[in-house]
Amino acid sequence: MTLLIVDDHEIVRKGLLASFAVEECFEKIEEASNIEDAMKVLRISRPDITLLDINLAGKENGLDLITKAKKENIVTKFVVLTSSSRKGDFVKAKELEVEGYILKDSNVEDIIYGLKCIGRGRKFYDAGVETQVKKGQNSHLQEVLTEREYEVLIELGKGYTNTQIAEKLFITENTVKKHISSLLGKLGMTHRTEAALFAARQWRRKEDLGVK
Questions:
Q1: Which of 13, 69, 11 is nearest to 42 (CA)?
Q2: Taking the model in full, what pTM does it have?
């Protein structure tokens, strides 16, 4: 596969080039230090994967490269390689449908593994970033909701009925309804189903929901 590395630090680019060069899976590797140069390479070479940093020189945001490329219908798999673990950067990158998000403090072997996975059609998101973002979201919910409302929200995510939630939490069904009404208001939602879908997305893995 062919690869474009976009990073304003030459030492980073050269280090990655040296590490990737020994891998047979990379047929051609090019580099760019800014969005303008990266667009030139993208227009001509159309690399399979574009590995980019978010914080570029001159206050450029690497994610803007994705928007520009899509406007020109340039097809490449974008992978963010950055030192930023900020929730906002990660969320925006996922909204732009990047194929991967990897932190720069990862081992080179892990970066290469991630790129190979992406080359085979899979997505690869650094587990550390996803965990940090998930913790941040859960922490915010726990600040907004009461402990009981938070528990009810989790049960909604499992698809339980009000009766089932009441039985599990040892409260009345009417109390469950009151908690749901309250949490809907706090979360700016209007329907029970909306909250259930939100919770299901929030805790996708069974272990996050406490399901054995």
A1: 69
A2: 0.63
Question: Based on the domain organization, do 152 and 119 belong to the same domain?
Answer: no
> Residue 39's domain spans which residues?
2-131
136 domain-assigned: no
At 61, the amino acid letter reads: N
Residues 85 and 19 in one domain: yes
Alpha-carbon distance 18 to 59, whole Å?
Answer: 27
Claim to verify: residue 124 and residue 157 sit in the same structural domain:
no
Q: How far apart are CA 50 and CA 32, in angstroms?
A: 10
Helix, strand, or coil here: 172? Answer: coil
In SS3 terms, 136-196 reads as HHHHHHHHHCCHHHHHHHHHHHCCCCHHHHHHHHCCCHHHHHHHHHHHHHHHCCCCHHHHH
User: Is 52 part of a structural domain of the chain?
Assistant: yes
126 in the same domain as 39: yes
Residues 6+ apart with CB under 8 A from 84: 54, 55
For the stretch 96-142, pLDDT in tens is 999 999 888 888 888 998 899 999 998 888 766 655 555 555 656 77
CB 62 within 8 A of CB 89: no
Return d(Cα 35, Cα 25) in angstroms, integer.
26
Rounded to 5°, angle at Cα 173 from 170 and 178: 105
Q: How many folded domains does the chain comprise?
A: 2
